[in-house]
Specification:
With about 200 residues, the chain is α+β, with helices and mostly antiparallel strands. It is about 50% helix and about 20% strand. The radius of gyration is 20 Å and the shape is elongated.
Length: about 200
């Protein structure tokens, strides 16, 4: 591969990355021969079948890798609870919510990911963008995180949901009205009020 083409490819990764699919690269005129050249000279490496990362000096975080492979996903539940200091649990798996219409993504064996499905309409509710060492990742805000622990209580457990809402209600940045608005849309308002009316 010519130096000019390699530099153009690098700039495409910087602008669109950090992880790109084979289809993304083919769309830029990089065929199988070009991919093999980039793999052989160490410019890129394969994250999983059909997905590639530019070989930068520092490794991407687990969050950035999964977000790159599942760009429409939002980190949720235990993962977002850790972001907002709502749990003492140190989860061994990442948790991500994706559209109900999407098939389960194929991700690397590590890091392990649990997927949750929801309608397109509710997917964006409470979504915020966080910077993770120069990479944008999508995560739910604290209010959405609390609601999800009650929505998926059969998977997360009652004790985890209670810890999350107790920690949320101790927070100086809590927003009870926003919590109620989210809870109503996610159909967990009754469960949330059972706790807020006692603990708030």
């Amino acid at each position: 591969m010519r130096i000019e083409q390699r530099e153009k490819t690098k700039q495409f990764f910087i602008a669109q990355g950090p992880i790109l699919s084979r289809a993304d690269l083919v769309g830029q005129g990089i065929g199988d021969r070009g991919l093999q050249d980039l793999l052989q000279d160490g410019s890129i490496f394969r994250v999983r079948q059909g997905y590639y990362q530019w070989n930068v000096a520092h490794d991407l975080s687990d969050f950035a890798v999964i977000q790159g492979i599942v760009p429409e996903g939002v980190f949720s539940l235990f993962t977002s609870a850790v972001f907002h200091d709502l749990t003492t649990v140190n989860p061994m798996r990442l948790h991500m919510t994706i559209p109900r219409t999407k098939r389960k993504p194929i991700v690397p064996d590590y890091p392990p990911v649990d997927f949750y499905y929801i309608s397109e309409e509710l997917l964006k509710l409470g979504q915020v963008v966080r910077d993770d060492d120069g990479v944008n990742i999508c995560v739910y805000d604290a209010e959405r995180t609390v609601c999800d622990f009650f929505k998926y209580q059969n998977r997360t457990g009652k004790d985890a949901a209670e810890e999350v809402i107790k920690n949320y209600l101790r927070s100086k940045t809590r927003n009870i009205q926003k919590l109620y608005d989210y809870a109503e849309r996610l159909r967990v308002l009754k469960h949330i009020k059972n706790y807020t009316e006692i603990l708030a």
